[in-house]
Design goal:
Elements lengths: L1 H13 L23 H10 L1 H18 L9 H10 L3 H10 L6 H9 L6 H26 L2 H12 L2 H7 L5 H21 L2 H17 L3 H22 L5 H28 L12 H11 L4 H24 L1 H21 L14 H9 L2 H7 L5 H22 L6 H11 L5 E5 L4 H7 L2 H4 L2 E4 L3 H8 L7 E6 L2 H4 L4 H9 E7 L2 E6 L1
Parallel strand pairs: 1-2, 1-3
Antiparallel strand pairs: 3-5, 4-5
Length: about 500
């Protein structure tokens, strides 16, 4: 009798969600690839509440990521994506060696998508789809960290995440970074549990893909390998054969990532050759990152961030009581990249979006507080209530997101310029690289104006001296301070121009 009780207790510990399972006595018939039959899939869809829940979240996530996908106009970085992606595969690679800090993979994918057009919708559809596919990956990460309830809550947090939706609707690589790095985390956790060669190979493969997507993931991958060394060192001392599969995974990463090693080093020294003129600098980066992870840019985001941090602390306490190695993993992967980023911010531009790959751990640890809540309200349907609470907390943030412009509205501003200019007028965009989003919406062929870009007082003055009887308009954004830190361009504008209109942070000036 005692033996049976002991076995039951061991079984309970190996299945943390046994008492709180939404599926009751239903056991999935799918345990391997060979089990994927039509009958088994139908049984799972019909009987598994978790499968139904995650499908509902994924459908909701897809709707939220496709809704208003082309509402905001392209901003500078998205227009830059279009500029680079319109070139050939080889030219994209050459650009990544010099002018563009990001690796070429995302631009290659966008290059292929341009076959279908160059609209905002086409440019953003890949990030939207990848952002949606990340939702079930979050579920499996939470399941690996503890149980299916953790996975469901983590997936729910991502589904309605302002931060996640924002970058799923932006024509940049960040949604892809989140998707790929989530797979890195998932296969690493599975590899630690099973030590299966296939899991280590997939971990190495997706680690390489992550680096080809964004160089900044190197920090996260380095932290994971550091954790692997700490975790596996005792086993390796006892039996070196245990190192074979992890080393093969590392070999896959090395072979696939080697072409980028020299590029990363070159780009690092190029970016740190002078102090950053924009971005988030110093310890404030910690605060900004956590607030944006929690809800975006509104004042309500601060309240959400505080709630999330408190709940995350409870999640860490619960995880520490059950599995100290997973606690170490989550702590290392959350803390070390943030600390390294604060240090690097004094030498190069750092933005919270570079750390988007930390979101799977951030949301999973928050979800890990669920068992503590279950002790207060011991009802297995409580997970539905938590999912509803997550939706209600994020609803005000999403309402604001969908009801107003969250980026510079170059589409609307181009209409303002068209209404004021006449044939032969000069339109100077400062800083000059803002010509990319501006000319996406404004055509001087139709308007018959003369367009140019400028960065310094010398650039502006040279155009001013040739304007003759024409009117000289200046299109200016706050980026001029970063592009011209000396300030002579702004000084020239203060002396020679006046503001006649402004729209979403873009100013239209006219020269006297």
């Amino acid at each position: 009798m005692g033996k049976k009780r002991e076995d039951r207790e061991k079984g309970s510990r190996s299945h943390p969600d046994q008492d709180t399972s939404l599926d009751g006595d239903f056991i999935s018939p799918i345990h391997s690839w060979g089990d994927f039959t039509a009958a088994n899939l139908l049984a799972v869809l019909k009987n598994s509440r978790y499968t139904q829940f995650i499908l509902a979240l994924t459908v909701l996530g897809l709707f939220l990521r496709l809704y208003h996908l082309d509402f905001n106009s392209l901003w500078l970085d998205e227009a830059s994506t279009l500029t680079v992606s319109k070139t050939t595969f080889l030219e994209i690679w050459q650009t990544s060696l010099s002018g563009e800090f990001h690796p070429p993979l995302y631009h290659w994918i966008t290059h292929l998508m341009l076959t279908f057009g160059q609209s905002e919708f086409i440019l953003r559809i890949v990030p939207a789809i990848l952002g949606t596919l990340t939702i079930p990956v979050f579920y499996f990460i939470g399941k690996e960290l503890r149980d299916r309830n953790t996975g469901i809550i983590s997936a729910a947090l991502l589904t309605v995440s302002y931060f996640g939706i924002f970058y799923s609707q932006e024509a940049r690589a960040y949604s892809m970074v989140l998707f790929v790095f989530s797979l890195v985390i998932l296969f690493y956790l599975r590899a630690l549990r099973t030590n299966a060669l296939s899991e280590w190979v997939l971990f190495g493969f997706f680690s390489a893909v992550a680096i080809w997507t964004h160089y900044y993931t190197l920090i996260g991958i380095g932290v994971i390998y550091l954790h692997a060394i700490i975790t596996l060192q005792d086993k390796l001392r006892q039996n070196m054969r245990e190192a074979k599969n992890p080393l093969i995974g590392l070999g896959v990463l090395a072979v696939l990532g080697l072409p980028l090693l020299v590029v990363v080093i070159q780009r690092y020294f190029a970016l740190t050759s002078s102090p950053p003129t924009y971005g988030v600098l110093g310890p404030i980066l910690l605060q900004e990152t956590l607030v944006r992870f929690s809800g975006g840019y509104s004042s309500f985001s601060w309240l959400v961030a505080v709630v999330y941090l408190i709940v995350m602390a409870l999640g860490f306490i619960l995880l520490f009581s059950e599995d100290r190695n997973k606690t170490l993993f989550c702590g290392m992967l959350l803390v070390l990249p943030l600390v390294i980023s604060v240090i690097l911010s004094s030498k190069m531009t750092i933005n919270p979006r570079y750390l988007i790959y930390l979101l799977p751990i951030y949301f999973s640890v928050i979800a890990l507080a669920y068992p503590l809540l279950y002790k207060l309200i011991p009802n297995r349907n409580l997970v539905y209530g938590v999912g509803l609470a997550v939706l209600l907390i994020n609803a005000p943030l999403l309402t604001g997101y969908y009801s107003s412009y969250v980026k510079e509205d170059w589409r609307g501003f181009a209409g303002i310029v068209e209404s004021k200019t006449q044939n032969g007028d000069m339109v100077v965009v400062a800083p000059g690289y803002m010509l990319q989003p501006f000319t996406y919406y404004y055509s001087n062929v139709t308007d018959k104006t003369i367009e140019s870009g400028g960065y310094t007082a010398t650039d502006l003055d040279s155009v001013y001296k040739t304007k003759g009887n024409s009117t000289m308009y200046l299109v200016v954004t706050g980026d001029i301070s970063a592009a011209n830190p000396q300030g002579d361009a702004l000084a020239w504008m203060n002396e020679h121009t006046k503001i006649i209109d402004q729209h979403t942070g873009i100013y239209l000036l006219v020269a006297a």
